[in-house]
Amino acid sequence: MTSITMSGAPTAAVTARSLVNRPLVHAHLLAGIGWFLVAILAGLLFSTQFVRHYLFPDQELLSPGRVRMVHTHLVAFGFIFNCLLGGMIWAVPRLCGQRILSDKLGWLIFGVWQAIMLSAMAGILAGHGQGVEWGENPTWIDPFVVVGWVLVVTNLIVPILRSREKNLYVSIWYFLAAFIWTALTYVMGNFFVQYWVPGVSGAAVTGLYIHDLVGLFVTPIGWGLMYYFVPVILKRPVWSHAMSLIGFWGLAFFYPLNGVHHYLYSPIPMYVQYGAVVSTIAVELVVTTVVINFFMTIRFDFDTLRTSLPMRWFYTGMVLYFITCLQCAFQTTLTFQKIIHFTDWVVAHAHLVMFGVFSFWIFGIIVHLWPKLTGRQWASRRLNEWHYWLSMIGLVIMFFDLTIAGLVQGFSWKALSPWEESIVASIPFWWVRAFSGVMISAGALCLVSNIALTARRPVTEMAPELQPATT
Amino acid sequence: MERLQTILLVAGLGFFLFSALIMGVWPYTLLKDVPVASLEELAKDIHPSFNDLSQRYPEVFSEYYGQPNEAAYAKALERGRDIYIAEACWHCHSQQIRPVSNESLRFGPVSRAGEYQNVLQLPQLLGTRRVGPDLSRESGKRSNDWHAAHLYEPTWVVPVSVMPSYKWFFETRVNDEGDARIVPNEDGLAVIAYLQWLGSWSEIPPATFYNAGQVIGEGGK
């Protein structure tokens, strides 16, 4: 079966140069990094409120609550969206042997998307945020996002339809499903909850939206890109085709059923809550097969983790993904929810998933693709190493810090201590969180400065895909 | 299972719609017979704190809201809810009391589904994080003055608070004697009215709930 799965790649590589619109991929990745920088600075700024040293007190347009919405929104739709799209514009034509439908449409999407992000940020800061978690952009932007996504799908699905492969490669399964899921998820979460479904039923739908955005947009595209880049870099097929089938169909069936676990012990009917708990545990078990598949693909090639930075990012993300799954299977139970719901434990989990897993994979892709996109070798290996270590250690500190803070808060509330005690007890943890944010920001600055330095180097690679992929 | 149509129709469309059906539509149909209260219906029951606002800040109140009648109350509640969303209050305060972790002792009666069947819960504001306490039984727990001071500078009334201050909810008024006074503006009045409305439908008086380190009564059982 692996012969089928890999047959796309070698044939595609021969004509790869004419297949991929490199400037477009480059532009999306650059824009993504730009939004990432804004997003983490917003997060860092927000964290200073918790230690009572907010840098811009009493400024309405930089009110901490608004800045917090900018942080999460730009992470999801500015950084991750742009980078995953860039990754797909790179991978889809190579897997299908077909160009994207239209370069002009690609550039139009690029421009429109950055305009959407700018207006979303401006709208939120001006006080027009929407009351939907992970969908805080002003309501009037929502239709543009849907149209934008339909255009993205149009541009990327045509090469898949034109491809003559009858059995599609696993990456394409994930992309195809995500095309539909993302559209439905966005409409469900931003329109139904806003205009038609109030109260508790609205909360059930919002739960689905919060979780589907991660599970049906970021996760499938992220996994699809891993299924593409890991075998390409290792020059070795994915270990087990059967396991990738189990992983995909398990995710497709169980993941959409999870969302209500964000509102356990709420007035949502209990059978819905029990269903969400059971399917959450199920999805974590099923997704473990995907993780095993990748560990077996890497097998004992640990030297790659030393020599290849992209593989190190990917591997770290996989390990953290496994930890995320394991944690999720426990924290979704009602027993855990009694204590950890509403606390910083959940914030820690969110950072582990969105930063520790998907952002790390995106960084791996960026490090891998940059020389191929620009024709310039990285200016400094050392800066890339610093980016990795600062991000990784910063994240691990943040994760443990907020997880413990969550337990402290949860037990303090349960013990009926005065509310203020939970605040006082949390402040040391919030200091550490702000510090870990500084580390992560410093890591991002390493990446940005390396990109700037690299741009000044002469173009050395005329045929980048012929070079060994050990950046 | 690796074919385009299977993936698009079964995984993409089928499984998603299945989940939306049993996780979204089904809970919705269980509540569909509970009428969703309109803003006008909610505003019929004017909370005493709204009258108090009109007497405490007569000048600004009459300027922005006129008389403390139903129309004014509806306007204030909706505006207050909009600000609650725009300022992301809902990211640090929940409106949902769970039957666990002693929450009914601390905050009041456990939340029921019917309480949320109104347009001010569109979009719903149950919340997923508490930095500050739950607000769904806030009505009458504290005075309008307390809320005004707290929104202007939280640490004046809760010294350890990490809540941001909202000075743009206030304006300076000079009275006939030339004394300057900081009073809530249109937004400030709306937010206070909204906070005092949350849980105003509760049958158990807020004074019986847990407060500042001691349980006063048998609230919320």
How would you sum up this structure, described in words?
- The complex is a heterodimer of chains A (471) and B (221).
- With 471 residues, chain A is mainly alpha-helical.
- Chain A contains 16 helices and no strands.
- In chain A, 78% of the residues lie in helices and 0% in strands.
- At the A-B interface, helix 4, helix 7, helix 8, helix 9 and helix 10 of A face helix 1, helix 5 and helix 6 of B.
Per-chain topology:
The complex is a heterodimer of chains A (471) and B (221).
Chain A: H1 2-14, H2 16-19, H3 22-50, H4 64-96, H5 103-125, H6 142-162, H7 170-196, H8 199-234, H9 241-254, H10 270-298, H11 303-307, H12 309-331, H13 334-340, H14 344-374, H15 381-414, H16 419-455
Chain B: H1 4-31, H2 39-43, H3 48-56, H4 58-65, H5 70-86, H6 103-106, H7 144-152, H8 154-157, E1 170-174, E2 180-184, H9 186-197
